[in-house]
Design a protein that fits this description.
The protein is globular. The longest helix is centred in the first third of the chain and has 18 residues, at 91-108. By secondary structure, it is of the alpha/beta class. Strand 4, helix 4 and strand 5 (113-117) form a beta-alpha-beta unit. Helix content is 38%, strand content 18%. The protein has eleven helices and 16 strands. It has a domain at 5-157 and 189-214: Rossmann fold (3-Layer(aba) Sandwich), CATH 3.40.50. The strands form five sheets. It has an eight-stranded parallel β-sheet with strand order 3-2-1-4-5-6-11-14, sandwiched between helices. The N and C termini lie far apart (46 Å). Bound molecules: NADP nicotinamide-adenine-dinucleotide phosphate. NADP nicotinamide-adenine-dinucleotide phosphate binds at residues 10, 12-16, 34-35, 40, 79-82, 89, 94, 117, 119, 153, 155-156, 163. Residues 10, 12-16, 34-35, 40, 79-82, 89, 94, 117, 119, 153, 155-156, 163 line the site of NADP nicotinamide-adenine-dinucleotide phosphate.
C-alpha cells in the first residue's frame, strides 16, 4: 500500500512537533511548512528519521505554492494559529481566510482529508475576536470540503508548551499572581500526546465530515491549575483576584509588549469555560480516550522550576527527582 503523504502547516508549534514524531515513527512521510526554514529547521529536523521529513519554506500565503503542495499530498493538516494580532497578521487572515483557502484547494485536488485545529469554548464568546475568527474558519471549512475534520481542543499542555511552562516561570519569579474572574473559569486540559493520538487515529480513520471536541479526563478551574503548578514547584504565592476594570487596564498595557502576556481579547475569552459544550461529540464519545492526568504529567517536568532543579525534592510527594 502506498504510504500517505502528510502536509503540515504550523508544524513548528507544540502540537506540530509532537505530531511529526508520531507520524514519522509510523513511517508516514511528512512535509512540514514553516515561514522560516533557518529558524525552524533545527527544531524540526531532530524530530524525524532522515528521509521521512521534508521542510518547505512559505513566507506568505502564496496560492500557487499552496496549490503545488496540496496537489501532492493525501492529507493536509492545518495547525497555524495565533493568540494576538500584529501589524502583519490578524485573526481573520490566520483563523478564517487561510483555513478556507486550504479547504478549497483540498476540495479542488480531491485529497483524502483536511484536518484543522480550531479551539474549544468559542461558541459563546461573542465578544472575542479570536473566538469569532476561529468560528468563522470552522464554518467556511465545512462549507468548502466534505472530508474536513475540525478538532477543538481545550488547553494543550506538555513539557514544551507555552502554558504550564510560562506560568511556572511567572509563579517562580513573581511574589503575587493576578487572577481574573476569581480564577473560576473551567478547563479540561489535554496532554499533547493524547491529542496527537486523536489526530493519529483520525488520520487513519474513515473520511468524514466531523467536528470533535478534544478533552482531557478532568475539569479544573484556572485557580486550581495555578495551585497545582505552585504545589508542583514547591512555591507559595498569593493569587490575587483582580477587579475587572483593573484587569482590563492591565491588559491594555500588557498588550503593547512585542509578546503580550495578556491582551484585552484574551481577557474577554477567559470569561468563558473551556470545557465540553454539548454541541459536538468529544474524543470520549467516539471511543478515543485521553487519560493522562494533569498532576501526574506535570510532575515529570516541573522539577525544572524548583529550587535545586533535578536534585530537588517535591515537598508534596516527599520524593527525590
Ligand atoms: N496549544 C493549545 O493549548 C491550543 C489550544 C486550543 C487550540 N489550539 C490551536 O491548535 C493549533 C496549534 O497549536 P500550537 O500550540 O501547536 O501552536 P503554536 O505552538 O502557537 O504554533 C503555531 C504555528 O503557527 C505558525 N504561525 C504562527 N503565526 C503564523 C503566521 N502569521 N503565518 C504563518 N504561520 C504562522 C508557526 O509556524 P512557523 O513559525 O514555523 O511559521 C507556529 O509553528 C493552533 O491553531 C491553536 O490555535 C492550541
Amino acid at each position: 500500500m502506498k504510504q500517505k503523504e502528510i502536509l503540515l502547516f504550523g508544524a513548528t508549534g507544540q502540537i506540530g512537533r509532537n505530531l511529526i514524531r508520531k507520524l514519522t515513527k509510523n513511517n508516514y512521510k511528512v512535509t512540514a511548512v514553516t515561514r522560516n526554514i533557518h529558524r525552524a529547521g533545527y527544531k524540526l529536523k531532530t524530530q524525524a528519521n532522515p528521509g521521512y521529513l521534508n521542510l518547505v519554506e512559505l513566507k506568505r500565503f502564496d496560492v500557487n505554492k499552496i496549490e503545488e503542495l496540496i496537489k501532492n499530498c493525501s492529507i493536509c493538516i492545518n495547525l497555524i494559529g495565533i493568540l494576538y494580532e500584529k501589524k502583519n497578521q490578524n485573526f481573520k487572515m490566520i483563523h478564517s481566510d487561510l483555513p478556507s483557502l486550504l479547504s478549497i484547494k483540498a476540495n479542488e485536488f480531491k485529497i483524502e482529508k483536511f484536518i484543522h485545529i480550531s479551539a474549544l469554548g468559542i461558541e459563546k464568546a461573542y465578544d472575542s475576536n479570536y473566538a469569532k475568527s476561529k468560528l468563522e474558519g470552522e464554518k467556511r471549512i465545512l462549507k468548502n470540503f466534505n472530508n474536513s475534520i475540525i478538532l477543538k481542543p481545550s488547553i494543550v499542555y506538555s513539557v514544551d508548551d507555552n502554558f504550564t511552562t510560562n506560568f511556572m516561570t511567572l509563579l517562580s519569579r513573581l511574589p503575587v499572581m493576578p487572577i481574573y474572574y476569581n480564577g473560576r473559569t473551567k478547563f479540561s486540559p489535554i496532554h499533547v500526546l493524547d491529542l496527537v493520538e486523536i489526530l493519529f487515529q483520525l488520520i487513519n480513520g474513515k473520511n468524514q465530515k466531523l467536528v470533535l471536541e478534544c478533552l482531557g479526563p478532568e475539569v479544573i478551574t484556572f485557580k486550581e491549575i495555578l495551585n497545582k503548578l505552585l504545589n508542583s514547584i514547591n512555591k507559595k504565592r498569593l493569587l490575587l483576584p483582580l477587579p475587572l476594570p483593573i484587569a482590563s487596564l492591565s491588559a491594555k498595557i500588557l498588550q503593547i509588549l512585542p509578546k503580550p502576556l495578556l491582551t484585552e481579547d484574551q481577557l474577554k475569552l477567559l470569561k468563558y469555560d473551556n470545557t465540553k459544550s454539548g454541541l459536538y461529540d468529544t474524543n470520549f464519545d467516539i471511543g478515543i480516550k485521553a487519560d493522562r492526568i494533569f498532576d501526574v504529567e506535570l510532575e515529570k517536568y516541573s522539577f525544572n522550576w524548583r529550587s535545586g532543579g533535578q536534585f530537588s525534592k517535591n515537598n508534596k510527594l516527599g520524593q527525590t527527582k
